[in-house]
Amino acid sequence: MAPPTATLTSSPERILSTVEKLKLTGSADLHSISSYPRPALTPTGALAALPNLKAHDLTPVIGREISGIQLRDILNAPNSEELLRDLAITVSQRNVVFLRNQDLTTDELKTLIQRLGLASGKPKDTGLHIHPVINSERDDGGNDNEISKISSELNKKVYQNVQQKGKRQDAGRLWHSDITFETAAPDYSVLQIREKPETGGDTLWASGYELYDRLSEPYQKFLETLTATYAQPGFNRAAERNGFTLYTEPRGSPLNIGEELSAVHPVIRTNPVTGWKSVYAVGHHVAKINDLTDRESSHLLKEFVKLITRNHDLQVRFHWGANDVAIWDNRSTYHTATYDLEENDVRWGDRAVGIAEVPYLDPESTGRREALGSKVPQEYAL
Ligand SMILES: O=C(O)CCC(=O)C(=O)O
Ligand SMILES: [Fe+2]
Description:
The structure is a single chain. By secondary structure, the protein is an alpha+beta fold. It has one domain (38-161, 171-372): 4-Layer Sandwich (Double-stranded beta-helix), CATH 3.60.130.10. It has helices at 12-25, 30-34, 71-76, 80-94, 106-119, 152-158, 208-213, 217-224, 233-242, 294-309, 368-372; strands at 54-57, 64-67, 96-99, 148-151, 186-195, 203-207, 227-231, 262-266, 268-270, 277-279, 286-289, 315-318, 325-329, 333-337, 348-355. The protein has a 7-stranded mixed beta sheet. The chain has a 3-stranded antiparallel beta sheet with strand order 12-6-14. A 3-stranded antiparallel beta sheet has the order 8-7-11. A hairpin with a 6-residue loop joins strand 9 and strand 10 (277-279). It is globular. The model is unreliable at 1-36 (pLDDT under 50).
């Protein structure tokens, strides 16, 4: 069982920057950053055996809703370790899991995410992400650096004092995975919506496993040779516009420091929990695909988003009620809010994001459908 390490990524540039950062931060062992069990983890069945638990898949490809449990009880159960490990595996396999009407404090959201990550094998020196912009120093509604307040009001204040560009016609550009611009990147995010208007404000998730599986084999092989630069200069600009200083201390890992919100990761990555490949270079935190021309890079990045928006059978859409919770695995899942609220509608929630390994591509891993022995849907002529 060879542990996948950063050496499995294809770009020398990538390895150098990781090693440099490790040296800089005094982190001794590269393997502690990304050593994962192979084969993939399997659940013990402890979660599924809980007496009141009910679960159903929301689509064949992505999403599961679990009911009959309170996450607080899972956190406090004598066998919580085992239950959380099963829950983490379920989230990683189904991309996103929903639990309605949960009674959770922000501290419990944080504990949940950190323990889900540890129970499923993330490096022990990783914690929760601290958002470089939306953290307690500039947030009017919280005092915790490890909780991002997701808020229609805060959004207006921080991001929308930019020049307007005309009527909105492209919500597709808002698809993303959280915080992919960090060197040690996220595993699980949790979002609990606390208050929302009766209608609107749904969130959509899409499966990166399925996106990978829908590509032809030559395309998959080509993409596996590539890395991308993941960056979010928009956050630097938002900080500058608002007179904030960016948070430059470690953001969930000794590797995530400084003002430059940028990292090089593979385009196709392996999820360490499921062992399945997915397309990672999707959405508004990706600057470019390295080694291609600007036109080629831009073409591919647009194509990935087009594949998501034109294949709604790899998406799931969730209509929130107050205090509902979604937990997703950013390594293999994209999501987007729906900005359809009216002027005076208020919607807010609390989000915690776990930081885990440096992304890698394990050449021996497979796609999800290959691992499950299931067929990729075919296009039919009409
Ligand atoms: O507001 C939402 O529905 C999602 C916001 C988001 O991108 C996140 O919580 O990571
Ligand atoms: Fe997000």
